[in-house]
Amino acid sequence: MYNILTYNKISAAGLDVFDKEQYAIGDNIANPDGAIVRSAALHDTEFPETLKAIARAGAGTNNIPIERCSAEGIVVFNTPGANANAVKELVIGGLLICSRRVIPAIEWAKTLKGNGAEVGKMVEKGKGAFVGPEIRGKKLGVIGLGAIGALVANAANALGMKVYGYDPYLSVKAAWSITHNAIHVDSLQEIYENCDYITIHVPLTPDTKGFIDKNAIAAMKNGVRVLNFARADLVKSDDMIAALEEGKVAAYVTDFPTDEMLCVDGVIAIPHLGASTPESEDNCAKMAADQLIDYIENGNIVNSVNMPEITMPRSGIKRICVMHKNIPNILSAITSEIGKSNVNIENLLNKSKGDNAYTMVDIGEADFGAIAKVIEDLEGVIRVRVI
Question: Active site residue: 107, 134, 245, 260, which one?
Answer without folding.
Answer: 260
